[in-house]
């Protein structure tokens, strides 16, 4: 079982102490000094000179400028980090398009880097600086953004008091009235500067709100369609030679996001091409919130349908710091896990056709090469039989022997399972392993689903615009699954299907 451990970084406690006893008192003293200076020089002729640097003594102005620049660097880094965290959480909840997330730490889950968002922030900062060219308008925009964050945080904190801390509702109302009334005054004062630069954060918020709503709405409709059109096991059991369904040589590896049931893309494939491989594997790749997943806990393997159908389900789990292997090594680990599942399967697990259940349990299967109790796979080099026969013929002429001597040798790969010493395995399992080996030698096809979401007939014009244009544009420009990059293109079969939601 994977252990989810919350790692507390030692620097977090140090940062809390430093903020409480150093940063916060310094911030209060700085604001008190500015307030004292403004109260004494409020009748100054030029209001533009009244500011932070005017209140600082002349001898300390340059050192304070250096400290202010360093503070701006730290503040910008905090904003960037906070943006990364918010985007990642929204993407995990299905409220934002998929982006590339790079985890920079093996110990802390929150230390991430998102290249697309980083470049977007740079372009936005340059656009605002070049567009405004005025610190007053930029200050108005920043002021409205800050006070809006404070007001929203206060409202959410009142919900945390009731829902998470289980305190009295009156305490949450008092907290909201006390802090919310003060922040509401500052918020109303910032709204006065709406046409003087304060409109920028509102416009950006509305823009990202539309993107998040369109993506979330399309994702929910797509998931509802997949769940409603999920193929049942009874439909799979009804497939056979009588319906014109043929089983061809080889292995079909079907990538899906469903961890249970048969995806609708498979029924669409079988309906249009009434044949599928003699061995089918429904593969689901999942990311778990831990740095690394141990090799012995990588795969969850189970059956789909009766034993004689040779259909399996495999869930591959990866941590956020795990390196996705190439197709050759991943195939070897995948088939070793299936072979180990077949070897260690209990007799009561493989139920008959009439007793098969829809939800069947899955088994954690180890694939570590150091574990001698696991099934391993070996590939031996064998020479082509024609060359072996030609080499054994001593009655051929010397010219023919010279040609054979200098001709290149063709090499084939013979795949076989290496079973541990004294395995507890029956003849049915040996037959199943032999069939999988033959299917592996015949070749493997990667079947990927590509769905196009369209609004069904009779939908409103708003829904058609959101689904057919908005969500389709975001889907085509968002990042796809990472495992698709390692799949060989020569063996890939992409099945397209239109979802009418």
From TrEMBL:
InterPro entries: K+_transporter (IPR003855), K_trans_C (IPR053952), K_trans_N (IPR053951). Residues 250-500 form the K+ potassium transporter C-terminal domain. Residues 16-236 form the K+ potassium transporter integral membrane domain. It is a multi-pass membrane protein. The chain crosses the membrane at residues 16-38, 50-74, 112-132, 144-163, 169-187, 199-218. It is found in: Cell membrane. One of its GO terms (molecular function) is potassium ion transmembrane transporter activity. Keywords: Ion transport, Membrane, Potassium, Potassium transport, Transmembrane, Transmembrane helix, Transport. GO terms for cellular component: plasma membrane. Its main location: membrane. Belongs to the HAK/KUP transporter (TC 2.A.72.3) family. This is Putative potassium transporter. It comes from Lupinus albus.
